Amino acid sequence: MRRALISVSDKTGVVEFAKKLEALDFEIISTGGTKKALDAAGVKTISIEDVTGFPEILDGRVKTLHPKVHGGLLARRDLKEHMDTIKEHDIKPIDLVCVNLYPFKKTVESGAALDEVIENIDIGGPSMVRSASKNYKAVTIVTDPADFERVLKEFEENGDTTLETRTYLAAKAFRTTANYDAMISAYLSNLVGSDFNETLTLSYELAQSLRYGENPHQNAALYKGPYTSWSLVHAKQIQGKELSYNNIQDGNACLNLLMEFEEPTAIALKHMNPCGAASAKDIYEAWDKAYEADPVSIYGGIVAFNRPVDATLAQAIMDKKVFLEIIMAPSYSEEALEILSKKKNCRIMEVDMTTPFKDKKMALTINGGLLYQDLDLDIWKEEDLKVVTKKQPTEEEKKDLLFAMKCVKHVKSNAILVAHDQTIAGVGAGQMNRVGSAEISLEWAKKQGKTSLVLASDAFFPFDDTVTLAAKYGVTAIIQPGGSIRDEDSIKKCDELGIAMIFTGMRHFRH
Q: Strand, coil or helix: what is 25?
């Protein structure tokens, strides 16, 4: 008679699975709570103690770590020596293992104390999973209830699972234990503040398959990590089509910029760069100003608000008659959703913007490797700001300068952004030289009829040419990190042209 060992924390579907195995003449070995559940359902089970001849000890920490379990899993059926050895030691083969692991992730996310978290580090479960998976040519390993039907069907139709299925299940099982170990490692590393260690293991779960990637010929999928706020991955989609790869990239960039602001702010973004952004006394004025900043580029873009969307704001959005890919906000009134439902293809996303943002690192793949760094969450401190020119900025200019610097931080380098009245007036992104970016931003502001501008740069000016250009378009104040060996040239030029300039001491490249 074939033997199955069943020991699960998540008991979804396990009773029905065990009953069908029993009907297929499997002898069922089980442990603890799983055995109780199966016994209560009328499934005849053998306790693990009856198999090992040894009781569970140390509050259940040791129960399956025994030669009579792992010998039955690891013995190669095609080697006479192995089969003779287990027969000599009265070890019976185990042909199927159904195991899922202690709920470590769930326990951590619940905010449990350290001792409880540690008790939810499974030892015996991963050991059995690995033993069964290593011997996949003979043993079927099931770690996911989603695979119950496939396994049962093959046993019913063929008398056994196919080698292809066992290989698939073994690979999945090793992914399961790898993911489990990665979560434990991350938890303990965070506990002691260990960072940028000798190895890096990232653990993410499939959230959804995407229709395609950046382009239609590229396959893609979205994976999610632990819950965090300001995240499209963990947001609630209320209406609209499935998010695309590019939607997710743009949406994430939009949320990162919105995160900079506490005052009522509206952001409009296209292709990873803000095309409109404004802060105001209320969210309605912020939306009008953000839209008017660039009513052309916003078409097909993404908008986000750091205040709830009510019927008034929803109607203001509709009144613009502009196609939007995504609207993001912390919440929506029922009336607002009814109004926005007329934009059938627009994705309406409810995003947690109240919980403090937890992520501290970002990763970027390169050919043959991975770049890993701190997220650029820091911002200058008020005491770090240094006016380096004879002219002091006015209070209004200073407000606009700080607004502009928060925005330019999220523009692709080389980045220049001009603003007025805490509203973007023009953006120059991703040019190979800083003057090129300045020309783009200033020309757009001129086209829009914007005057009394302030200018922000994500990095220092290598020459004074950007200052000279800015003055021609009516820029009255500039903010930049400083740090060039030619800083004095730019300061001198500002003094000549009557422009105020602030150094922040902090660069914000975004490649």
A: coil
Cα separation, 110 vs 314, whole angstroms: 36
Q: Which amino acid is at 258?
A: L
Q: Which of 134, 320, 446, 492 is catalytic?
A: 134
Does the active-site annotation cover 70?
Answer: no
Same CATH fold assignment for domains 227-350 and 382-503: yes
Catalytic: which of 234, 271, 320, 399? 271
Q: In what order do the strands lie in the sheet with 265-270?
A: 236-239, 347-350, 324-329, 301-305, 265-270, 273-279
* Residue pointed to by tokens 């899993």: 73
What is the 3-state secondary structure of 417-438?
EEECCCEEEEEECCCCCHHHHH
Query: Going by CATH, does the domain composed of 227-350 fall within 3.40.140.20?
Result: yes
Strands (E), 311-385: 324-329, 347-350, 361-366, 369-374
- In tens, the pLDDT along 455-476 reads 999 999 999 999 999 999 999 9
Q: What is the pLDDT of residues 261-279, one digit of tens each?
A: 999 999 999 999 999 999 9
Give me the numbers of helices (H) and strands (E) for the chain, helices first please.
18, 21
182-215 confidence digits (pLDDT tens) = 999 888 888 888 888 888 888 899 999 999 999 9
The CATH classification number of 2-192 equals 3.40.50.1380
Show me where the domains of the chain are located.
2-192, 227-350, 382-503
C-alpha to C-alpha distance for 500 and 463, rounded to whole angstroms: 17
Task: Assess whether 271 carries a catalytic annotation.
Answer: yes
The CATH architecture annotation of domain 382-503 reads: 3-Layer(aba) Sandwich (3.40)
Whether this prediction's pTM lies above 0.90 is answered by no
Name residue 448's amino acid: Q
CA–CA distance, 326 with 240 (Å, rounded to integer)? 9
